[in-house]
Every structure is written in structure tokens, then in C-alpha cells.
DNA sequence: GATGAATGAGCCTTCATTCAT
DNA sequence: GATGAATGAAGGCTCATTCAT
């Protein structure tokens, strides 16, 4: 694949992500996406066979990108608590940083995928979630969590994902502070 | 308004809520909804002027119903902690009990509303959220929360709403236990 | 089904048959058909779910109509030769009379049907062909055919169907004369 | 024109003939044809300016090829009856032998040509049909046909062309036998 | 209130054809 | 001659909404 082809693909995926986040998958037309990158409607066909393929493509890309990011955060930490904090921070960054559009879409438009695709995405998230579970169990082993790890992760992913609905990185609270607040929720006795 | 008219309206709203949750607002057709209550497609428009009105109608109803429920939970509690627990429990019940369909729709299809309607819904939630804030501040006054109340509420609403994606009331954890786990997140020192 | 609904269906089927014959199934658009009966493009949907359904519908109708006609011709004849002549005549009438459009379409656009539909049509033709075979075997029993009945029928159906490509009922040869010529082909010794 | 250029042209024509027969002209895409000979879609247009040109090209080729074949059959025969038999045999071979794909397409997709092209094809067939007419009139001169030659030819071409729909050369009847059966139809008194 | 045929705008997708490389 | 991305006009179909009955 030559690089300008990859570029066009990335360009489309990014434009689509933004539109899907702003208007929703259903209300975004193929023409909207084409126009956003300066193509005619039919030309999308060379890059993605269907509109759903675009949705799927951006979900896969963002999961893979952020799994790698999470893995890095996991590897670089030197204590159980700092590891969990790093994961929280990484996830918040995914949601509010460069991959924000795609992450939002992943959360809100996941149901638009057809059955099979839905499972594929779920499977891709497994490695991602496995990292989280290991990190939380490290904290649990130190007796610092008050909730069982699996449940804790589910509650945390909710709290973190939901920030998309209210948190503005440009506001008074920076991302590091927010990450610490979330960590506080996870810890049994935060001040200890 | 005679009562059988109200019934028909309720019937439509419930059928729509179920369909919107299962298939999403965009993929649910007016015909789907009509068929679900034994009407022909055109007849639905004697009850709701537009498809969006149905979405809006069920959101308003479910917010009002649950605000009343929340108010009751608030009033009946006799301590700050038991009050927060009661609110958590009430919100979880809204999400997993009889109003489950409408609540899920409220969370996931909120963006489908047009601008003005979106604000209306937001305003309706104000009273609801005010109750929450008072309850959390009661707990904060006792020095038992580790996170500032507004942020805490936002994180909790995320954690609670997200349960729609993973929690099954028929599974091994009952709703009371789940509510306690959520409370644990909110408390600074759960064992105290 | 009220009668004006049936009428609209018939109207559509006839308009479609004419267009399919003139332009071919593939080159006829749903909009062409709608316009021909004074409808907007989307309104076809109330009568036929897909364009193929129209094709299938008219084929089924024309087969059933002509099977009944063939049966009548079969029943009314009083000798083996006159029976075969009557069938030839009936088939020519189907091709050049009122059902001409649909018959032509049946012959030339049969391949446009999807697999399953193709079989359905074939099955419908069975009863029709069974009549033919019985009639030809009546003639064979009298020793008046020179070719085995099954093969004879296949050759005759070709000769008859092909008339669509050259015979004009308004020309110098009338349908009865043409029918006799075809019978001549089938007979071993025409003058006997 | 160098010979490998001619080869590429032939290759395309044959691939197209097969596809047109199998799927129909309308449902065969330019990409299908290109792919079948290992070209990319755009490259096909170095060989044929339009998709219709391909259809026209293969029709012209097959007519010319078979006219030559018919001429040979005509020339080699030594009696009126054997001449007609030879023509039948030659036409059946065209339909069931190597030129089968193109012949089938000639019969079934003739209407897909634009007006002018349709006439051109008709004109090409004139020489072909003239041979047939002379042969049949030879037989008529001997008093052995029961139907006037022009009509007879039209009926025979139908019977023969239609074999494409039912006759399998690999079945129990070989091509010679089939040819004889067809001749039987044409003769007034076959046993004579 | 109910019906359901009709509307008509719009959607996703297809595909013959062009053209810069 | 070959490539393949791009074009752009259609095409089949969907569906919220209207309205005469």
C-alpha cells in the first residue's frame, strides 16, 4: 500500500469519526463524509465497501492505537497504584485527546455495527481489558481496593467514558487532576 | 383526556422505548412502533405529530417518574450515607427495573433530539440533579467523600449509567449489593 | 383486497410488462414503471416490495392465465390432431395477443429472476407442459409424429416462441395459418 | 495489429461472452470482464471504447465465423436434403460447440445493442440467412417441404436456437441425432 | 380516531468511463 | 499499454409524513 493511499484512508476515517461524533452514524451521510475530504460521493467505494466498514474501520484503529498506548502506560509504571493511575490517565487521554472523536463513536455508535462486527470489536477489546484487570488486581493484592476487580473495572469504565459528556479539557480541571479523582474512587482509603 | 386515550399514549411510549433500546432510534421505523401496538402506520400520527415527539415524550415521562421516585428516596432516608445509598439504589432501579427501556434510551439516544428539545430535557434533569447534589453535600459535610460533590456526581452517574452495558439483575449480584458497591466508590473510607 | 387495489396491481403489472419488453428488465427503472401509471417512484413500494417482485408477479400471472387457456383448448378438442392444433393456436395467441408483453418477458427475462424464483416459475410451467405432452402423445399414438414427443415439444416451443422475433399478426399471414404451418412441422405426413 | 494484441482482444471477447451468457450483459460489469483476463478495470478501455463495443464485437465475430462455417457446409453437400442437414448440423454446432457462449449471447442479448448496432448485426446475418434460404429452396424444388421456405426457416431457427435452453451435448442424444430430428420437422414426408 | 395509499426527499451503493501517472 | 483513484449520474429502496375516505 503506497503511503498516499494510507493517507487517504486515514483522512476519511478521521473525517468520518468527527461527523459520526457530531451528528451520529445514522444521520451522517456518505456524501457528508466524501465532501469532508473533497471527494465525490461514489469515490468512497475505492476505500470502503460500505458505510459500516468505515465505522468498523475507525473502531478497530482506535482500539488498536489505544491498546498500544495502554500497554505502554502499563509497562512504564513502577507501583500498583501508579499503574492504575497511568491507565486511568491513558484512557482519559484517549477520550479527550487526539482520538476523541473515534473514542466517542466507539462508545455511542457501537450498536450500529452488525452482529458479527460487534463481536469482532468485543474481541479486540479483550486484550485491552485484560491489562486493566491485571492492574486492578495488583492494587487489590495490596488490599487497597474496596470493590472486587471486575466490578470495579466496570464501574470505572463507566465513570471514565461518561466524562465525554461533561468534562472539557480546556476547563478549570486538567486531565491529571481528573485522573487522580478517578483513582480516588477506586482506592479504599485514599489518604493512606 | 379520557383514560383510554392516555392508555394508548402510554402503550405507544412503552412500545417505542423497547424498540428504541433494541434497535436504536434511527433504525426503528414509525411502522415498527405502530405495528407493535396494533395500529397502521398513519394512525400513529393522531397521537404524536412526529417521530421525535415520541422520543421526547418518553424521555420527559421517564425523567418525571424517576424524579418523583428520587424525591421519595431522598425524603425517606434518615442519614447522609443512607440517603446517598437510597439515591444510588433508586437510580439503579430506574435503569434495570420497569423504566429500563426508557432510561436506556434517555442515555443513548439523547443526541437524536433536536437542539431545543435537548435543552428542555436538560432543564427537566435539573431538579433531579439538585437532589443528588444536596445528598452528596450532606455526605461531604460529614467529611466522608474524597471527591468534590459536583465531580463526584458526574463520575457516579457515569458508573451507574454504564451498568446498562454489563449488569444483569438476574445474575449473581443483586441490585442492593451493586448499590453498595457504588456507594463504596463514593466514600472516602468505606470501612469507617 | 378491494377491487381498486387489484386494479392498481394489474395496471402496474401491465405497464411493467410493456416496459420490460420494450427496454428489457435491466434497463427499465422503477421510476419508469411508476411514471407509466402516474405514481411517484416510492409508491411502488405499497404494491411490490422489489423490482424483481414485479417481474415475478407478471410471470406468475401470465403462466396461470395461459395454463387455463391451454386447458380449455385441450378440453374442447375432439381429435388428437385438432387438439395439438388448438394448443399451438393457444400458445401463439398468448404470444401475440393480449398477453404478448408478459409472454415476451417470460421468454427473454427469465434469467433475471433469482435462483429460487426461477425454480418457482419452472414448477408453475409443469402443469402447462404436462398438457402439451399428453396432447402430443395422443398424436404419437396414432403414428402421426415423426419425432419422439418430448423432443418434439422442445423443438415446437422454440419454433413458436421465436415467432415473437419475426411474426406480425397484422401482416399477410393470420394466426390460424401460422398455427397450421407449425402443425405441419409436427406431423409425419401432413397430407395424410 | 501485432498478434499478441489480437490475442488479448480474443481473450477479452471470450471472457466477456462467457460472462454475458452466465450473468447477462446488464449484470456483467466491466470489472468482471477485466478481472477474468487479469486486467484492471481501466485497462479494458484500451481495447474497447465502451462496454457495448465488446458485445457488438463478439456478435460480429461469431456471425462471421459461423457464416464461413455455414458456407463450407453448404458447399460440401451433394444433395438438397444433405445440404439442409449440414446447415442444421452446423448451426447446432455453433450453438453447442466452441462458439456456444457467443451464440447464446447473440440470441439473448441482441436487444441490448443500440439501434444502429442492431441493424449492423442484422445486415451481417443477411448473407448467413441467404445461404439457408437457398438450401431450403433447393429442398422445396424437390417438393419435399410442406412449409414455404421463408416461414420454414423462421420456424427452424426458433427450434434450433431454443435448444440452448434444454439440449445438453453430454446427454443421451448426440448432435447428429438431434440434427436429424430437426430435419425431420422440415421434411414433408420424412420416410420417403 | 383509524386506515393505508401516496408522497417525495433522500439514502447507500453501483458502475461505465476518464485520466494523470 | 497498464494502473487504479476518481468521477458523477443513476438506480433501487426506505421512510416520516400527509390526507381523502
UniProtKB/TrEMBL annotation, chains A, B, C, D:
Residues 29-48 bind DNA. Keywords: Coiled coil, DNA-binding. Gene3D superfamilies: Tetracycline Repressor, domain 2 (1.10.357.10). InterPro entries: DNA-bd_HTH_TetR-type_CS, Homeodomain-like_sf, HTH-type_TetR-like_transc_reg, HTH_TetR, KstR2_TetR_C, Tet_transcr_reg_TetR-rel_C_sf. One of its GO terms (molecular function) is transcription cis-regulatory region binding. Residues 6-66 form the HTH tetR-type domain. PROSITE patterns: HTH_TETR_1, HTH_TETR_2. This is TetR family transcriptional regulator. It comes from Sulfidibacter corallicola.
Amino acid at each position: 500500500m503506497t503511503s498516499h493511499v494510507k493517507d487517504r484512508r486515514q483522512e476519511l476515517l478521521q473525517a468520518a469519526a468527527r461527523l459520526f461524533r457530531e451528528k451520529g452514524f445514522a444521520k451522517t451521510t456518505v456524501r457528508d463524509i466524501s465532501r469532508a475530504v473533497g471527494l465525490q460521493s461514489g469515490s468512497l467505494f475505492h476505500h470502503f465497501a460500505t458505510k459500516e466498514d468505515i465505522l468498523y474501520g475507525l473502531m478497530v484503529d482506535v482500539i488498536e492505537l489505544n491498546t498500544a498506548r495502554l500497554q505502554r502506560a502499563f509497562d512504564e509504571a513502577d507501583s500498583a497504584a501508579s499503574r492504575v493511575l497511568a491507565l486511568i490517565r491513558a484512557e482519559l487521554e484517549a477520550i479527550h485527546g487526539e482520538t476523541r472523536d473515534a473514542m466517542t463513536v466507539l462508545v455511542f455508535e457501537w450498536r450500529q455495527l452488525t452482529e458479527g462486527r460487534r463481536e469482532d470489536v468485543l474481541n479486540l477489546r479483550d486484550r485491552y481489558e485484560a491489562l486493566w484487570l491485571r492492574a486492578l488486581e495488583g492494587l487489590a493484592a495490596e488490599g487497597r481496593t474496596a470493590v472486587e476487580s471486575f466490578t470495579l473495572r466496570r464501574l470505572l469504565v463507566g465513570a471514565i467514558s461518561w466524562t465525554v459528556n461533561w468534562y472539557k479539557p480546556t476547563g478549570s480541571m486538567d486531565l491529571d487532576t481528573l485522573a487522580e479523582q478517578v483513582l480516588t474512587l477506586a482506592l479504599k482509603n485514599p489518604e493512606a
